[in-house]
Specification:
- The chain crosses the membrane at residues 240-267, 394-421, 441-462, 489-507, 608-631, 769-790.
- The structure is a single chain.
- Helix content is 54%, strand content 6%.
- The strands form 6 sheets. It has a 4-stranded antiparallel beta sheet with strand order 2-3-1-6. A two-stranded antiparallel sheet has the order 4-5.
- A hairpin with a 6-residue loop joins strand 9 (372-374) and strand 10.
- Helix 7 crosses helix 8 and helix 16 (478-506) packs parallel to helix 19.
- It starts with 11 loop residues before the first strand and ends in a 9-residue tail after the last helix.
- Mean pLDDT is 78; it is low at 85-95 and 842-899.
């Protein structure tokens, strides 16, 4: 990871192709590279090329010296640790979930914690905005190059690379930045170098540490080393894994409750009077399920179907739906608190995004525009796209294409519906008992599998079209581009994954008339809900799509395909080398890895957003969804970690203050889930029907006779021409049938209001709407009240932020005063304790003594302050802190600066 001199660290790698024979613009690209490198050197960076004639790909190593890093850290207003404070006001670990656990519970959870000897603890240091002219304020180690973390070094070099010009003065104003050079083919790639090998057992590196204690499947039950993830990959990726881990923890109570609801259904499955009535042979003769060829049938054929329905359609379902609605809100509120703690620990409070440079693709397209205007900031005339002539037509066209794609997804649902209608018609006329008896189950499973395959195909097409549409919009910055693409892909995938579920839950079986006047589509009868409820079919559809997506997309595609792609690149790299050397340099190995790209993290978030929708939107139909999501996420965390550590090139450690627009999507899903679950309970399940019958229409306030009450009568003589079953197709035992039954609340044929809706039907409709309104309002009021009770930032974090601000300010003032008096920069212990006592006295909080680590090598501690009994336990020292401690021990004076 160093230059050839073994001293200067490699901060970035630039890669270009040296195959000039096939490149007509080779001379121009060579000129661009030469100008670009010269400008980098003028900027203060060190560049060392690694050129071998046997390779078609050449490399340049970039190093940023201390002076350049200090200058840009000052310009970028980054926060750096100050010199004087190493003792902690409070234990930073106590802010997290693990730190607040004590006693037996903490011992019980100790196996899930990381080994502190293998993964040393990160300590929070007090920081302030860096000022180059006041270097004496900061904790600068020896050698001073280690003052800046690897992530900070990479970020600063990337900052310079994105703003360095490569064109001459007479050329375009937009000839600057490594992104443009990669876009026009001058460079193939630019990336930070991975630090060490994850396979090297003889030498430990942070990459090896992350591989062994995070990316390995053997530590699937351990917590994540988030501080190391942030240190190595940056805050943006660190926030993703922090959120994913927190979401996985939050699924534990939801999984437990879901399992209990499922067990409740199993325990009481045989005690359901409706199931008992359904299993009585020849108790109810049902009307044919199709015209002409279908015969009458006995309702007892639905016995097993009704039993399965009872697993998910029972009294516990309402409780679980209400619980999950509250769970979603509580999860988001507590995540905001966790996010605030992370922002404080990672020094992201009051963080401001730096000004983003324009995207290379935007610059290329904007340079072709014939319209120009004066930039109000720079005063230079620049080309631009007028809103009404260029942008507005593009946005309208993009919206129209999005609407068309949504209609395509709906058309796929209609196609699958037509398939289900056709396959059921065929199976119901089959003479084989196993076929017609299990026709609903076979039809539902086969249709769900076909729908899943079509979903994957449409997702592939939708992603490509969403990228094309976003490219066409010509957005200026990468942030605007990413947000627009996120919304497009999520909306399309939302419709693609959930449209069939919405159809089954809220449309199927709602518009059927009596057997002689059934509604039709494509000249075929509309589908009916078997057993009076579509909940079982919704559960089957949800389970197949949800589990199938997790197995195929999240595991097979994410694990197998990158591995195959990596092997292909390694073979291609070996074929490029004429000498067929087997030992590759670190930058050559990293070049063989997959590039994460701008869509890498977007895809990871998108998978979890779709999963969150499955867990919340239709959880009333599938209580096991949180449990399956929890198991999947345990695998997802480690597979994603393995990709980032072993299969991806190291991404630029980008900064971020939160998970961005994904929080807004999560919040919207939780609100929609309240409505969907209320409607599923009211209209899809039979819960309201049962409760209404038991409380109003039952003679003994039980469900006895419910099935008979929910079945209407139909006179077989009322079949219109061509709809009655053929005489030869009617089974012998149904030859003399006069009346058949069907699921609906309609007047009998002997009534004056023949086949019209009964009063009970209107009572049921009113009860369903009243339940939805009450459920929604009660849950919304409770969630709003819970959100109000839970502050976005915990009291402890707020207190520590205020104390840090006061302490840092006092230390800076004291240091400046000592410097003005001619003293050595730094504070004595007595000065620090004076600050401490002043702050404690003003706030009325506990003691806050800063102690010097002046213990002997045997571990005995002696405190020279007056408060000897208020000793604090100091954190483990890193190598640099231990070095300074040894120096401090050799100086017997009170003005020594200590760590």
């Amino acid at each position: 990871v160093f230059f050839n001199d073994g001293v200067r660290r490699i901060d970035y790698i630039l890669v270009w192709s040296s195959n000039k024979a096939r490149d007509k613009r080779a001379a121009t690209k060579e000129s661009f590279r030469k100008t670009f490198v010269n400008n980098l050197i003028e900027e203060g960076l060190h560049v060392e090329e690694d050129i071998e004639e046997s390779r078609n790909v050449q490399f340049a190593k970039v190093h940023a010296p201390f002076e350049v890093l200090a200058r840009h850290t000052d310009n970028m207003k980054l926060k750096m640790p100050i010199k004087e404070v190493s003792s902690k006001i409070e234990d930073m670990d106590s802010m997290g979930l693990w730190g607040r656990m004590t006693g037996c519970f903490k011992k019980f959870l100790s196996p899930f914690e990381l080994d502190p000897y293998r993964v040393p603890h990160f300590t929070k240091k007090f920081t302030c905005t860096f000022q180059k002219e006041k270097m004496y304020l900061y904790d600068v180690p020896t050698p001073k190059e280690n003052f800046f973390s690897r992530a900070t070094r990479c970020r600063i070099v990337d900052f310079i690379l994105r703003r360095t010009e490569y064109g001459h003065e007479h050329q375009s104003l937009f000839t600057y930045g490594i992104k443009n050079l990669i876009a026009n083919g001058t460079y193939l790639s630019a990336y930070p170098l991975h630090e060490g090998s994850h396979k090297n057992r003889s030498r430990m590196s942070i990459r090896k540490l992350l591989h062994d204690n995070w990316a390995s499947s053997s530590v699937w039950f351990k917590v994540q080393p988030l501080d190391y993830i942030r240190s190595y990959f940056g805050e943006k990726i660190g926030f993703y894994f922090a959120w994913l881990g927190y979401y996985t923890y939050a699924l534990i109570p939801a999984s437990i409750v879901g399992l209990l609801v499922f067990i409740y259904g199993l325990v009481y499955i045989n005690s359901d009077p409706i199931a008992k009535d359904s299993c009585e042979k020849n108790m109810f003769i049902m009307c044919p399920k199709c015209y002409k060829r279908c015969s009458f049938w006995g309702y007892h054929r639905m016995c097993y179907y009704i039993l399965v329905t009872h697993l998910f359609d029972n009294a516990a379902t309402v409780f679980f739906a209400a619980f999950m609605s509250l769970w979603g809100t509580i999860f988001l509120e507590f995540w905001k608190r966790e996010q605030a703690s992370i922002q404080y620990l990672w020094d992201l409070k009051n963080f401001e995004e730096e000004e983003e440079p324009p995207r290379p693709e935007y610059l290329v397209k904007i340079s072709e525009s014939k319209y120009t205007k004066k930039n109000k900031v720079t005063g230079v005339k620049e080309p631009y796209h007028p809103f009404w002539k260029r942008k507005m037509p593009v946005y309208l066209t993009s919206a129209s294409v999005m609407f068309f794609l949504i209609l395509v997804a709906i058309a796929v649902v209609l196609g699958v519906t037509a398939y289900r209608i056709a396959i059921l018609s065929v199976m119901y006329t089959n003479d084989h008992q196993m076929v017609y008896k299990n026709a609903p189950l076979i039809g539902s499973i086969s249709a769900a599998i076909i729908n899943l395959i079509l979903i994957f195909i449409l997702n592939f097409v939708y992603e490509k079209l969403a990228i094309k549409l976003t490219d066409w919009e010509c957005l200026r910055t990468q942030h605007d581009y990413d947000n627009s693409l996120r919304y497009k892909i999520y909306i399309l995938q939302f419709v693609n994954f959930y449209s069939s579920l919405f159809y089954i839950a809220f449309i199927k079986g709602r518009f059927n008339g009596p057997p002689n006047e059934r509604s039709k589509i494509f000249n075929a009868r509309l589908e009916e809900c078997d057993g009076g409820s579509c909940l079982t079919e919704l559960c089957i559809q949800l389970a197949i799509i949800f589990v199938g997506k997790q197995l195929i997309q999240n595991n097979l595609v994410e694990i197998v395909l990158p591995f195959v792609s990596r092997i292909k690149r390694a073979i291609r790299m070996c074929l490029r080398n004429k000498n067929k050397k087997l030992i590759l340099k670190p930058w050559e190995k990293d070049f063989n890895l997959e590039e994460m790209g701008s869509l890498g993290l977007l895809q990871e978030y998108l998978e979890m957003m779709i999963q969150f929708g499955f867990v919340t939107l239709f959880v009333a139909a599938f209580p096991l969804a949180p449990c399956f999501a929890f198991i999947n996420n345990l695998i997802e965390i480690r597979s994603d970690a393995n990709k980032f550590v072993t299969q991806y090139r190291r991404p630029m450690p980008a900064r971020a203050v939160s998970i961005g627009v994904w929080y807004e999507i999560l919040h919207a899903i939780t609100r929609i889930s309240i409505v969907t679950n209320a409607c599923i309970i009211a209209f899809t399940s039979s819960f309201i029907q049962r409760e209404l019958y038991k409380r109003v229409y039952s003679s003994d306030n039980t469900l006895n006779g419910f099935l008979n009450n929910s079945l209407a009568y139909f006179d077989v003589n009322d079949f219109v021409n061509g709809t009655a079953p053929k005489t030869e197709d009617i089974k012998e035992k149904y030859k003399n049938t006069t009346y058949c039954r069907y699921l609906d609340y309609r007047e009998p044929p002997w009534s004056a209001k023949k086949y019209q809706y009964t009063t009970q039907y209107w009572h049921l409709m009113a009860s369903q709407f009243i339940f939805v309104v009450l459920f929604e309002n009660i849950i919304v009021l409770i969630t709003c009240f819970v959100a109000y009770l839970i502050p976005d930032t915990s009291t402890q974090v707020s207190h520590m932020m205020r104390r840090e601000a006061v302490v840092v300010n006092e230390i800076l003032l004291k240091t400046e005063l000592n410097r003005a008096k001619g003293f050595k920069p730094g504070l004595s212990k007595s000065s620090l304790n004076e600050i401490s006592h002043r702050i404690n006295a003003s706030e009325g909080k506990g003691r806050m003594d800063f102690k010097s680590q002046t213990s002997t090598e045997s571990g005995n501690r002696e405190d020279n302050d007056t408060n000897k009994d208020d000793s604090v336990v100091d954190p483990p020292l890193d190598e640099h802190s231990w070095y300074l401690l040894r120096q401090a021990k050799q100086n017997d004076n009170n003005d020594v600066s200590f760590v």
